[in-house]
Amino acid sequence: LFRSDQLEWGDQIIGQAKGSFRNPPGFYVSLIRDNISPPAEFETSRTRQMRLETQRAHEAKLIERQRLELAYDHYQEKEVDRYINEQVPAEQFQQAIAAKRKELQHQFPSLVAKTLDEVSARSARTNFRTQAPLISFEAFCQAHQAEISGELFSDQ
């Protein structure tokens, strides 16, 4: 039990009494002497600070996770592009786009031609994504952490 917590709670009690407290110093002494702890629902500045620090750490982890997910998405896009450019003959890729276009045009006849072309190309790329040699998100994160560690130590 922290004395500062007891005194903060005592401050609140005396403040709520609005001047009608007859012996505030004696009240503080009794809280400390009798080791009276504040109720669990009373948030002291110490516990508030700990809660806020925990919250900030949690938010920082979430931000880092989102940053890694975005980086992983970018990595996947680059690797799929590389795979298509290096491993898939241009004619095969164009045929895949044409087949998707025909399928999508049948499903969504009101799509504008430009949108249909864009969605068809993205869909064809998605089909090749399963064939591209991509590492898992976990492996990407480990490799990314190694890069960060290398950058930190290369400056020294």
What does this structure look like?
This protein is an all-alpha fold. The protein is 77% helix and 0% strand. The chain contains six helices and no strands. Helix 1 (3-16) runs antiparallel to helix 2, helix 3 (45-87) packs across helix 5 (113-129) and helix 4 crosses helix 5. The mean pLDDT is 91.
What labels describe this entry?
mainly alpha, 6 helices
The helix content, as a percent range, equals over 70%
Determine the number of helices (DSSP H or I, runs of at least 4 residues).
6
Q: Identify the overall geometry.
A: elongated
Sheet-strand content, in percent, reads under 5%
**Biggest sheet character:** none
- Low-confidence parts, pLDDT < 50 over ≥5 residues? none
Structural topology:
Elements: H1 3-16, H2 24-33, H3 45-87, H4 90-107, H5 113-129, H6 137-154
Helix pairs in contact: 1-2, 3-5, 4-5
Summarize the structure.
77% of the residues lie in helices and 0% in strands. The protein has six helices and no strands.
